[in-house]
Amino acid sequence: MLGASLIYLGKAAEHLAPEAMADYLDYATVGLALLVVGSLLPAFVAKFRLPSDQKLVYFSESGYVAQLLRRAFKASWAATFISFVGLEFVARDNLVDLPAVFFIQAGLFIMLSVMSVTFLVLNWNADRDAAGDDV
Q: How far apart are CA 95 and CA 103, in angstroms?
């Protein structure tokens, strides 16, 4: 998700960058998209090759990962909503010449990055709590 958020950041930045730099950003986002797909492909293959008894545990809605994802989704929704409210005030006077797709891409960047970072932090904290680390 963090990789996908960086792709949306690059696409949104293309609207603000000079034309020569926008071409480089376009190539960078295509390269990043290929990297994200290439890194996720082995995980998808491994997920679908699981035995049927492990798939039930893996896809369980009450499982550990599902609970963390729900908490991360809530945080990302709240952060996106607050960001759009703030962006409305900024854009009202300063960013009137930008296309609507810029704001959609900026919102997707915020939503996906907050979701992925929140998921990682929640998982890291749960792992540290389970190990008994007190830092």
A: 10
Total domains present in the chain: 1
**9-18, Cβ contacts within 8 angstroms, sequence gap of 24 or more:** 9/105, 9/109, 9/113, 11/105, 12/102, 12/105, 12/106, 12/109, 15/98, 15/99, 15/101, 15/102, 16/98, 16/102
* Cα 25 from Cα 19, distance rounded (Å): 10
CB of 5 closer than 8 Å to CB of 108: yes
For 60, the domain range is 2-131
| pLDDT tens, residue by residue, 36-45 | 999 989 988 8
pTM: 0.76
Average pLDDT of the chain to the nearest whole number? 84
CA distance 5 to 9: 6
